[in-house]
Amino acid sequence: MPARSWQRAPPVKRLVSTGAQFWHWLETQRPLKRSSLKLLLFAAVVLFALYPNPVLLVRQISHLLDMESLIQPDLPAMPEINRDIDQLLATNTPALTEFKAVERFVYRNVPYQYDWHGWWNLDYWPTAAEVWERKREDCDGRAVLAASILRARGHADARLVANLQHVWVAAGTNELMGPMIDKNFRREGGKTILTFPAMKTLLDSLAMTCKFPAWRVVLLLLTLLALVFHPALDAGRFATLCAVMLAGYAVFLDWCVRRTDRDAAGFDWNFPVAAVLIIGSLAFAWRTAKQQ
After folding, report:
1. pLDDT digits (tens, 9 = 90+) for 207-242
2. Chain centre to alpha carbon of residue 202
3. Which residues are bridge partners to 161 per DSSP?
4. 162 three-state secondary structure
């Protein structure tokens, strides 16, 4: 296309043309360079699908490295918060009753919202001030606010406890905000202790995929399939492999829903069937590319 006519082309058409040129150029590169560029391209798509706000990703890393900074007992709204909680309590209330009142207050004033809807990123642990400003958070934000309130009420040992699936609060020997048995992250004696999650925690966390926006997962799967299939030019076979992979994803989602609803007790055939369909489509894509 002449330069002048290309400049007059609609932006979408120019973008598609540029993408096609890059795709064909990538085909001519040496295998090592081509593989490296594909990894970079896939990493960019992963970043876009899981963490479209890179500023929040950087902030999330800093928050995880200094989780104490999230807990803010000196929050400007804390006097008002404590007055509301005090109205729920009688004098000389036992600590456990106070903890339950704090838990109810947080649940009532901060409705649950997944991070990928509220922040657009897969995960983000906010400060207590951010939680109170937005008034909508998932388990980590609720736990941060609850720990901040407890510290403001004199429970200096209030701390965050987490595993791969959930975040809650501990104060002394008491736990609130939905404690779980498997504790993969906790602080004891000023030290951060990390442990490998149990298989049940891993599977339950994976099952949360059914709550994640499907278009993001489909984007990741189809991008991976296209990169593995390249530089093969068999459009019919690629369309077939896309259909097989999407069928595998549909079966996987059924497994996710059944597990999160506690409808699938023990072994469920959906998981291995989904794995065979998804991994099999990638294997056939790689074989087709090698035969090119």
Report:
1. 999 999 999 999 999 999 999 999 998 999 999 999
2. 13
3. 168
4. strand
- The encoded tokens of residue 234 equal 């068999």
Mean pLDDT of 231-255: 96
Structural domain spans, the chain: 54-196, 205-291
pTM: 0.89
Distance CA 55, CA 60 (A): 9
Q: Using one digit for the tens of pLDDT, what is the confidence trace for 76-87?
A: 999 999 999 999
Q: Which two tokens stand for residue 291?
A: 């035969």
Instruction: Report the C-alpha gap between 104 and 149 in whole angstroms.
Output: 12
- Provide mean pLDDT across the span 85-104: 89
Residues 253, 255, 259, 264: is their CA dihedral positive or negative?
A: positive
CB 281 within 8 Å of CB 244: yes
Length of the chain: 292
